[in-house]
Specification:
heterodimer, A: two-stranded antiparallel sheet, 4 strands, 65% helix, B: F1FO ATP Synthase
Chain lengths: 284, 70
């Protein structure tokens, strides 16, 4: 049957141990992506010159920052809030997009290492670790690299960060009155709406995590199956689809978190009318 | 039997989101036709709504993948 030679595993396998802490292949890959982002940012920080003929590298970084700033500002319409939200939103977008694209690089998936068994003490465990009891006769291999967002752990962590920061930003802007949303004692209906709001927050975590995980993991499985069936030319449109999906999912994740941040910090003052009218006056 | 379950899960799970996305995009096209100046705003919100609707199909896909590979 077709499924025998395909190696697909929903959970990320550990590839080595640091002490007794297993490092999975997705953590390993996301370390490289984080390192890449930090190195680019540090290089830019120290070579940044405010002149009228920027180098191409500076141009690209400025373009990215400017478009992200414009994107965040178009939704919040408030300079103070934009400066507060921009670091986290930009990090979500760049981290998720780069992690999605790393899953498409050659070598991510085919390069395999032997899965380490930490404590193979009994004879049966040692035989299993050496792979002598499996049908193929060699040890259980696992890919060394794997897109971090194809692992439910990463996406769940990102989702929890997004929802927790919503509450934090809400409290920062509205004080403890933010929690009145959940505990509304003015009427029985209000009480149930408060409970529903609470459940909605949990549902947000789950939907964020599964949307990103499902899209990227399904893309990986699709590419593996397509490449297995016809190895030449046919996977090309699916790679294009994966490029598109990777970008869109990063955009959707950051846009959704931005919308939730904005909603949580929305106060019922008139300061927003002041900002909006100021913006329309300057736009004319 | 397992293959049947996988096929039915994914097939039934894709009906709802497909109808939802179709309705969403048709209303967005209508709105763009009425007011071509607001195309950018409408398009952005349409993509956002599509991501929500597609997420439901993705849940069905994840269940199908879990049945197959776990």
């Amino acid at each position: 049957m077709a499924g025998q030679n395909i190696h697909v595993s929903i959970s990320a396998e550990p590839v080595f141990h640091v002490g007794s802490f297993p490092i999975s292949n997705s953590i390993f890959t996301s370390l490289f992506v984080s390192l890449f982002l930090v190195v680019i940012a540090s290089i830019f920080r120290f070579k940044f010159k405010s002149n009228n003929r920027p180098s191409s590298f500076q141009n690209v970084v400025e373009f990215i920052v400017e478009s992200l700033y414009g994107f965040v500002h178009s939704i919040t319409e408030n300079t103070k809030k934009t400066k507060l939200f921009l670091p986290l939103i930009a990090t979500f977008f760049l981290f998720i997009m780069l992690n999605n694209y790393v899953g498409l690089l050659p070598g991510v998936g085919p390069i395999m290492v032997k899965e380490p068994e930490l404590h193979a003490i009994s004879l049966a465990q040692q035989i299993h670790a050496a792979g002598l009891d499996t049908a193929e006769g060699h040890a259980k291999m696992a890919p060394l690299f794997r897109a971090a967002t194809a692992d439910l752990n990463t996406t769940l962590a990102l989702a929890i960060i997004a929802v927790v920061m919503t509450q934090v930003f809400g409290v920062m802007h509205l004080g403890l009155a933010y929690f009145k949303k959940f505990f509304d004692f003015s009427s029985p209906i209000g009480f149930f709406v408060g409970i529903l709001e609470f459940i909605l927050e949990i549902a947000k975590i789950i939907s964020f995590a599964f949307r990103l995980f499902g899209n990227i993991f399904a893309g990986e499985v699709l590419l593996i199956v397509m490449t297995y069936l016809v190895a030449v030319l046919v996977p090309a449109p699916f790679y294009a689809l994966e490029l598109f999906v990777g970008f869109i999912q990063a955009l959707v994740f950051s846009m959704l978190s931005l919308l939730f941040f904005n909603l949580a910090t929305k106060s019922h003052h008139d300061e927003e009318h002041h900002e909006v009218s100021e913006a329309t006056v300057t736009a004319k | 039997m397992q293959d049947l379950a996988i096929g039915i899960t994914m097939g039934l799970g894709a009906i709802g989101p497909a109808i939802g996305i179709g309705m969403l995009v048709s209303k967005a096209m209508e709105a763009i036709g009425r007011n071509p100046e607001a195309t950018n705003k409408i398009q952005t919100n349409m993509i956002l709504g599509m991501a929500f609707a597609e997420a439901i199909a993705i849940y069905a896909l994840v269940v199908a993948l879990i049945i197959k590979f776990v």
